[in-house]
Batch of 2 targets.
Target 1
Amino acid sequence: MQKNILSEKFIVTGTVSDQSLLNTRQIQNHCLSNFSLETKIKDDQFWHLEDYNTIPYRQHIQWFQDYIRDHYRAEYDRTTVPCVGIRSLVQQTGESINYHNHVNPWDLENSPEISCLYCVSETNEPTYVIFKYDDGRNKHRLWKQEIKHNQFILFSSELEHTITENKNSGFLVNLSTHYQLL
């Protein structure tokens, strides 16, 4: 008997090592300094991306992407290659993010296979990412993952997800990166 896996949906969580030179405060400041109407993603076909801001390259972001590539390759024997650009997701107090995914149905070739949220802000009140998925006959299942400072959440880009209301007095800042696999 041989079992073949036809598709896979996953969520992987982890934290960046304290030994890394990566500075979450610098990434947070970079995301906030690029938080404006000019950097908001404006795409009529993908209204859900209006919550995201495009942000330019920064060395600490490159170090984060290198960290993800190296650790993902060591654990799963596949290499992540950044695609789609770098985004930030800044939630103000009382703001939540609607359900969406990161796959562009009109451009599947350039759509990411893996998405990543990396929390760079320190918060007191918990906020969650809720993933919606189907598992065969088990429809409309949910997985709830808390967002924590210095924690990354890697997940299949086709997973519908929402981020619950930010109940903190300050901004909730997440770096959003996307990858294809080799």
Target 2
Amino acid sequence: MSEESPIPKRMTVKKLGQKVDELQEVVDIIHSDIGELKELLKTMIELQIVKTPEIADSNAAWVDRMYS
């Protein structure tokens, strides 16, 4: 009852290229999502500053840094 371990398949250039393409697509999606999250957070901070203006008055350097 000896079980033979399966022989690992070798990575070919074609398969490697496909994997790189898949990875690039995933990286592009993540990059896009992060950009959307950044804009959302910026909007939320702006709304918070409008809602409670004392935040901007007490820490003007922090507020200005958001736009740098």
